[in-house]
């Protein structure tokens, strides 16, 4: 529970080869964050519903159909498109 509440808070960056999957989740915030992230909202089947760059101290949107949010490095912006299905590896 503590790890889920903390998320990426207190980190200095998100390494290029990593991300954080939060589930169940349909909204994230950037309060207290030091760097931007790419937030990818996924339905229960892993289909991308929405993706957007979130800047520090901003609130992400509430995506009612989302089951999970994948937080990725901003460098991956444009590599994830709405409607794509992501699989766990």
How many β strands by DSSP?
4
Counted by DSSP, the helix tally is 1
What is the CA-based Rg, rounded? 12 Å
Structural class: mainly beta
* Gross geometry: globular
Please trace the helix and strand order, writing H or E for each element: HEEEE
Query: What helical percentage do the residues reach?
Result: under 10%
Largest sheet, if any?
4 strands, antiparallel
Strand content: 15-25%
Mean pLDDT: 91
Description:
Strand 2 (37-42) and strand 3 (48-54) form a beta hairpin. The model has no long low-confidence stretch (mean pLDDT 91). The protein has one helix at residues 2-6; strands at residues 20-22, 37-42, 48-54, 68-72. A four-stranded antiparallel beta sheet has the order 1-4-2-3, with no helix packed on it. The chain has one domain (2-76). With 89 residues, the protein is mainly β. Helix content is 6%, strand content 24%. The chain is built from one helix and four strands; from the N terminus they run H-E-E-E-E. The two termini are 23 Å apart.
Write the layout of secondary structure elements.
Blueprint lengths: L1 H5 L13 E3 L14 E6 L5 E7 L13 E5 L17
Antiparallel strand pairs: 1-4, 2-3, 2-4
């Amino acid at each position: 529970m503590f790890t889920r509440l903390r998320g990426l808070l207190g980190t200095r960056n998100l390494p290029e080869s990593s991300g954080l999957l939060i589930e169940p989740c349909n909204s994230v915030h950037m309060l207290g964050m030091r760097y931007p992230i790419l937030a990818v909202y996924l339905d229960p089947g892993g289909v991308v519903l929405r993706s957007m760059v979130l800047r520090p101290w901003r609130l992400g949107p509430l995506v009612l159909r989302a089951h999970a949010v994948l937080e990725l490095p901003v460098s991956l912006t444009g590599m994830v498109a709405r409607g794509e299905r992501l699989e766990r590896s």
